[in-house]
Design goal:
Elements lengths: L1 E3 L13 H19 L7 H8 L3 H17 L5 H24 L10 H9 L9 H4 L7 H21 L3 H24 L4 H10 L1 H19 L2 E3 L2 H26 L5 H24 L9 H26 L8 H35 L20
Antiparallel strand pairs: 1-2
Helix pairs in contact: 1-3, 1-13, 2-11, 3-7, 3-10, 3-12, 4-7, 4-13, 4-14, 7-10, 8-10, 10-12, 11-12, 13-14
């Protein structure tokens, strides 16, 4: 299914992988469905299906590792961290303030220490749910991302020296650790709350997904391609649909949800196949639907969509919106909510997110040599 190509000469600017940007929107949409889906349906199967949408975060972590590795030129650690801070922090800070003020009676406020941790993106290091989900709860994943960014300049060097066998061993060990750790915890009868934090929130565990994305990008950079990327992408999408259907059926029939790390482990191979298919299509010059204007814009707005959808739901609920009246009306209401959230995300992207990022990136923090060329892929975290 895969083919290897001879390595190309060293280049300063990698080719664009626009399909990856288009895929971002669907990862964000899965998380939106997870957080708001139950508000728009009483159907047990749809409610359970929505609850598994958190696996979209795993996709984002893998995609983040892929994009940063594909674009990297042995980054200066200080400058790299500042550029990533400029990318993720401003909008997170704005919506944290909204959570702490406008939505203070609806959000889980974490206390003074939790407020500080949330502002500094350190909340995922606390095992207390009131802290890691405090404020705008979805921002816990940005706390993980900041940890990934801290490690990235030190991991990319050794990784860039690996080739086929070394990359396969790295991916294999990562998957083994990600599988064995929660199994050992289950054998030790660890409390549910502690297990949830360790294997869903804790940044070192989630780094495994980011590292797998890095391995995939390195594999593509040394010439790994899929022979039929369109067919492989279709297989990955159908596979993900089958996994979600099986998980939903199991939970509806038994009342038990499959533990989060194992859901992610079921999805990771299919996410890998999807990313490889997307990269292969772009590098082979095959135009995909996700590289058109609208999917690209939706992908660029996905970071703002991820951060704004939950505050928007809470705010509109206080206005009495989204009353359940039947499956057809509920479907229309969900569509209207997504459209409203996307429109707000686009406004935040152009009016807040990007202008502040451009301003912060001009600061000479961490500059010790000329800046590298612009990234070839949109780098939303």
């Amino acid at each position: 299914m895969a083919r290897a190509q001879s390595g190309s000469p060293a280049r300063r600017r990698p080719p664009r992988l626009d399909t990856l940007t288009g895929l971002r929107f669907f990862g964000a949409l899965a998380v939106v469905f997870c957080h708001v889906g139950a508000q728009f349906t009483n159907a047990a199967s749809l409610t359970v299906l929505a609850s598994y949408g958190y696996v979209g975060v795993s996709f984002f972590f893998m995609l983040s590792g892929f994009v940063l590795t594909w674009s990297a030129n042995t980054p200066n650690p200080g400058r790299f961290l500042w550029m990533r801070f400029a990318r993720v922090w401003p909008l997170q800070f704005l919506l944290a303030i909204v959570a702490f003020t406008v939505l203070a009676t609806q959000e889980k406020l974490p206390g003074t220490i939790g407020h500080v941790a949330d502002i500094l993106l350190l909340q995922a290091w606390s095992p207390h749910q009131g802290v890691y989900f405090g404020g705008n709860g979805v921002s816990w994943s940005l706390s993980c991302e900041m940890f990934f960014y801290l490690l990235f300049p030190f991991v990319i060097g050794p990784l860039s020296r690996l080739r086929g066998k070394g990359l396969a061993v790295t991916a294999g060990i990562t998957l083994v650790v990600m599988t064995v750790a929660p199994l050992v915890a289950n054998g030790m009868h660890m409390s549910g709350s502690l297990s949830y934090w360790l294997f869903f929130i804790f940044p070192p565990y989630r780094f495994g997904e980011f590292l797998l994305g890095m391995v995939l990008a390195r594999s593509v950079s040394i010439g790994v391609r899929l022979a039929r990327p369109g067919l492989c992408a279709l297989f990955a999408v159908l596979g993900l649909g089958l996994v979600m259907w099986q998980l939903t059926t199991f939970t509806v029939h038994t009342g038990d949800a499959v533990a989060r790390p194992f859901v992610a482990l079921l999805a990771l191979p299919l996410f890998s196949l999807l990313l490889l298919a997307a990269a292969t299509s772009d590098l082979d010059g095959q135009r995909t639907g996700l590289s058109w204007w609208l999917p690209l814009r939706l992908g660029e707005w996905s970071f703002a969509l991820y951060l704004v959808h939950k505050p928007l739901l809470l705010l509109t609920l206080t206005w009495g919106w989204w009353q359940q009246t039947g499956w057809l009306a509920d479907g229309a209401a969900f569509t209207a909510f997504v459209a409203l959230a996307v429109a707000l995300a686009a406004a935040l992207h152009y009016l807040t997110e990007r202008p502040i990022e451009r301003y912060l990136r001009k600061w000479p923090i961490g500059i010790t040599r000329p800046a590298r060329p612009p990234l070839a892929v949109s780098e939303h975290a």
